[in-house]
Amino acid sequence: MDADQRRKRKRANHGGTTSALKLILSFRSLTLGIILFLFTLFYFSGSDRSPFRPVLRASGFTRVLPVLLTQDYFGGGGKSLPLVIESRVLLPDHLLLVLSNRVRRGESLECVYYHQLGDADLLDEMLVKLAISADDYQESKSIVRCELPPVNYSAAVDLRRPGGEVVEGNWMASSRRAANQTAVPEWGKVVYEAILDWNTVVVLAKGLNLKPRREVDPAEFRCHFSLSNNLSREESFVFTTEATAAAQEVVRCLLPRSIRKNNTALAEGIRVTVSRVEDSSASQALPSVAKVYNPKSHGMRGEGEGKYELCACTMLWNQASVLKEWVMYHSWLGVERWFIYDNNSDDGLQDVADELNTRNHNVSRHVWPWIKAQEAGFSHCALRAKYECKWVGFFDVDEFFYFPRYSGQTPLPGQNSLRAMVSNYTDSPTIAEVRTMCHSFGPSGLTEPPKQGVTVGYTCRLQAPERHKSFVRPDLLDMTLLNIVHHFKLREGYKSTNVAEGTAVINHYKYQVWDTFKAKFFRRVSTYVTNWQDDHNKGSKDRAPGLGTEAVEPPDWRLRFCEVWDTGLKDFVLGSFADVATGLLPWERSSSSSARRR
């Protein structure tokens, strides 16, 4: 279609949309007036000099204002909810869109790319590609992953359902032209999460460039709060508050005074960002896709139920196949609640979590779309868990607690023994962390993943223990939430204790068969751990000794990391969990039942 034809079509459509345009413009004037009124309320309630301190209550109408202002309600036909794009961020290998409403799980969506040139005649020059995936996000939102925009196409990507049309001839055209000129934040310099914690908000951000394992002077930072979705203008920000703690990718700030005095829950849904004091104007703040999330309003236990004694948190990518063994085994040892942070898996992890929940394992899958942000993710998890759990363990799905025999004289611990061990310290006035050492196991001569699970299949390990993993009291962590994955910094006056190796150890099935192990070359989730394909820091303990930067299997891989044959946990699992009639383990029986149902 040439330019003359496009202009004729637009003139033909113009007459049919005049009345709709008038209605929309009138409605927008009304809603903009309401926003101005709400801004005035916030402004005066936050002023120390003003005696007028009204309480702002978030009504249902104010919550849908962004939807009404940014979406075309006249083209949906009432068949399904509109696709309400709240934020966009450019990740290294895809474009992430955050939607402020839920789309149906598994729904097919299309990403619509616009030419970067601002000429109205080029608005038709759009490219449509099928979205990579869509997923739930937090309790009421969605995320959609799109391919990176092609050259000369804007990152201000829209969505549509297959076969749908992008509405033309109305105010959405000018909206798209403005969006084309709006910079989409890039990963590496963006505020990506914000979580409410009493009268403060904990902000997670890339681009602070803080050193690992150190806290910094919080006086260097400020937080800025906005009622608008548009953070490109300084006037979009209503409040600025001081930071009270900062470390790594975490900045903790006070909530605005008016919210602290009235109701901290009102902070939920407000967008927040961070700036340094030397650039303390809001216009110099980091771009933000983060709105305040309140963990107390989601997933809490009922009144009078109390906290769980023992919980566990992990972050994983495409490890659904081993999740059942890990959860079922540790549930038997006493773990009552599971926080699974899913870092962009595409192997049916939600289906596995649903199956575990049908067996009363209390698993929550939390979508964590952020790349190389494990430490910040664990800080996020600690804040969620502290309202539900007395203790929470941070360990991986290839790590299994084991209580060895004491020279055959002491019987093996029974059910809930891990919970009993940790809960011994619940009333301690000084202990807030329980550490357990790890034994690293190798491929144990195998070339295929063990069918009965890792606890039975891998039986040869290194002699010396490596590192440790921890259970912590989430309510007794330092305000910075500083962690190096294996443990957290504790509040002043509290300390950790080490479990004796003869009492309990962790079997870390670190070096598995090559097809499983090689995935580590492509995904290292920790912020401060070098990707194995990068040609530096080759001496890191995180790397496998003797391997380079390419995922090439050494000829003797199946025989490596084997110094001590250790069948203790294998014997315990087969003796305690196997079905007497069939010999199947619980995670095998679950898989077989699922297969029969299909």
Outline of this structure?
This protein is an alpha+beta fold and 598 residues long.
Compile the SSE list and pairings.
Layout: H1 3-45, H2 60-70, E1 85-90, E2 95-99, E3 110-114, E4 126-130, E5 133-137, E6 141-146, E7 158-160, H3 171-180, E8 190-197, E9 200-206, E10 221-226, E11 237-247, E12 250-254, H4 257-262, E13 271-276, E14 292-293, E15 308-316, H5 320-332, E16 337-342, H6 349-358, E17 363-367, H7 374-385, E18 389-394, E19 399-402, H8 417-423, E20 431-440, H9 454-457, E21 460-461, E22 466-472, E23 495-498, E24 505-508, H10 514-517, E25 564-565, H11 568-577, H12 586-597
Parallel strand pairs: 8-14, 15-16, 15-18, 16-17, 20-23, 20-24
Antiparallel strand pairs: 1-2, 2-6, 3-4, 3-7, 5-6, 8-9, 9-12, 10-11, 10-13, 11-12, 18-22, 19-24, 20-22, 21-25
Helix pairs in contact: 5-6
Total number of strands: 25
> Which runs of at least 5 residues are low in confidence (pLDDT < 50)?
5-28, 39-78, 167-175, 231-235, 591-598
**Average pLDDT level:** 80
Return the structural class. Answer: alpha+beta
Strand percentage lies at 15-25%
Radius of gyration, in Å, reads 27 Å
Straight-line N-to-C gap: 49 Å
Transmembrane segments: 21-44
Family: Belongs to the glycosyltransferase 92 family.
Protein name: Glycosyltransferase family 92 protein
GO molecular function: glycosyltransferase activity
